[in-house]
Fold this sequence. Notes:
GO terms for molecular function: U3 snoRNA binding. InterPro entries: Utp13_C, WD40/YVTN_repeat-like_dom_sf, WD40_PAC1, WD40_repeat_CS, WD40_repeat_dom_sf, WD40_rpt. The structure is a single chain. This protein is an alpha+beta fold. It folds into 4 domains: 139 residues, Methylamine Dehydrogenase, Chain H (7 Propeller), CATH 2.130.10.10; 230 residues, YVTN repeat-like/Quinoprotein amine dehydrogenase (Methylamine Dehydrogenase, Chain H); 170 residues, Methylamine Dehydrogenase, Chain H, CATH 2.130.10; 122 residues. Strands 1-56-55-54 form a 4-stranded antiparallel beta sheet, with no helix packed on it. A hairpin with a 2-residue loop joins strand 3 and strand 4.
Amino acid sequence: MVPLPLKTSFAVEKEVDPLYSGGPVSIANGLLATTLVSQVQVSELATGKRIIKLEGDEEVITALNLTSDGQYLITCSRSLLMRTYEIPSGKIIRQVKAHESPVISIETDSTSTLVATGGAEGTVKVWDIRGGFVTHNFKGHGGVISALRFYGRAGSRTWRLASGADDCKIRVWDLVSSKCLATLDNHSSVIRGLDFSDDGNTLISGSRDQVLNTWDLKKFKLKQSIPIYESLEAVGFLAAGTLSTDANLAYIGGEKNRIRIIDLDAKAEFAAEALVDQTTETTIQHIIYNAQDKTLCSVRSNQTILTHDLGSLELPIVRRIVGQFDEIIDCTYILDDTKIAIASNSEDVHLFEPLTGNVEVLSEHSDIVIAIDRDFSSNFLVTGSKDNTAKLWNLLTLECVMTFSGHTESLGAVALPRTPNDGALPDFVITGAQDRTLKCWDPATGGKRSKWTIKAHEKDINAIDVSPNDRLVASASQDRLCKLWDQDTGDVVAVLRGHKRGVWTVKFSSFEKVIATGSGDRSVKLWSLNDYTCTKTFEGHTNSVLNCLFLSSGQQIASAGGDGLVKVWTIRTGECETTLDNHEDRVWSLALKSDDQTLVSGGGDSVLNFWRDTTAEVRESAAKAREEVVEKEQTLSNYVQSSDWRNAIALALALDRPGKLLHLLTEVMTARQEPDSITGLHAVDDVLSSLSNAQLLRLLQRLRDWNTNAKTAPVAQSVLNVVLRAYGPDELVAIPGINTILDPLLAFGERHYGRMNALIQETYLVDYTLREMANGM
């Protein structure tokens, strides 16, 4: 059997990194703008694909808003600066100091021409986005501006702005006359949401006083006050015909972490979001309504953004965006490689879809999930948690079908069968925990009792794996041992000794009778399952090896380390073929797609990297490059034979052949076909005077080297003469790394100059001697 090609090169095909850390969010024209402390990321809402990441001014972003056409993004930070970015280029088109205190609220109008900002000092300003100047400056609030809303349409004569503050008052401003039309006072806490009806005659307001108010803007009086019994953070009108043909509906959201639809005429709840977890302290911070798509996007305090369909009274979640996965502890491909199950520093397991960026959640555990594993079909998933339980999930229905309780401490490792199963459930589940016991469960019995329980190790169990034929179970522990067990009886089969520190990971090969282990001693060891001896040790990591797996049909091993690196080793040679570096923290998890072409790594930096095997592409590119070099070398020889010095020197410089270039320049200077030329040929002078920055840098590096040798220094000095005459000081200084070249050139130039002066002085002595000899004769 011909061995498959080894993998020697990988490239990051997709990088899933944090996109939201909490704070303001804006959605417009299919774009999503999210904050990462002082940074802002703009992504495609439908796919999660990053468009641009804006670095900001290193101060926390306090407010941001996309214009409705998606062409501009306005951000405000604690530095008091308001920046206007052009999207998608990210170019800053304007930067001004907006207020005397941080901007807390920001809102753009429907025409994408105006932006309103509300400061902590109680001032509201309206700006012309393209002009960058203030059109209105409203004062009157006695506290922090907490809510803003425009009303107006292109061609309309009515333009208004409503503002709410923590003085519990709402002010309605006329943008045409620049006057305050009314002050609406009925709330007893900070105003958090405002919205105008389509006709502009009604204003709705929501506050943390748990009351929803509607106001008559013809009389500027309170129409009705509806007790909501929760602190509100977002309110708004729904377009007529949404969810109902005749009801006057509004959406609300707040501390109960549940979107509700209120019938304003009936003063009652009309519809509500279903299946909301009430056990956590998560709240709704913001709701963005898209009337065209008939969706509501809710921003939650747990850094998730949910898109709800307004086509159903249950407001089903059609898309979930997770702001960041926190520290990624474990991951595995599931459902025929269409999704990845991720265990992070959370009690939830996230099912991430790489193509769309959508996330589904498995929520049953009461503490952090430490380990996950899938079965052969990839339709079942087992999870182990710090709540001392393991759970078996049906991934087709997203339901927990069984809970395994029996361990007295947190679980650190779980495993499922590796062979196909005709039954409805996996044949067995293996769990290992900090209580140092290993348990085998039979799902057919309901998981009430374990099939067998063994005190397997003297310290915590870190990892478990099952052999390809399901006959053996391997356990790795902090006691520096890896043990093999009979899956059916629980009897110990072998003990693998050799690591000097705790063993973090263990993996069976699906192609050979070998097993790999990774340890805190920074090594990966390969063991034979025939005699249970260590056959090979791979060393190269500078920190603990935390995970490993086999790839290339068992010919190679990928290892992940606490040094933030992923290394790919060839078993036959023991050499590291390549090192993958795109993490800023330890790499805890690895997963391999079934086609053996994509390797996934997840780490403590909350980043999930998808590494695509580019070995074939790199080899093909290298072969083409070699062919091109051969062709150019032949062309260079042809130029030399025909004494075409101009093209020969240009090509030698392009090929980076310093020896050939020196030989050609020496030939030209020796022949000196054109005495009035610096190098001996005007054509060569012209070539040296018209180089790109990269070529000029390469030439100067060669001149620096040649100038250190007295034999080649004359050539270097002549070429340097051409360079200094052809290129100005500004051009030379702009070349990266020029200082490292000029200093040696100057030093050796002065040395050569001193040597020539000494030679000239010695010629005077020769003249004197000859003259004296002539006089004596």
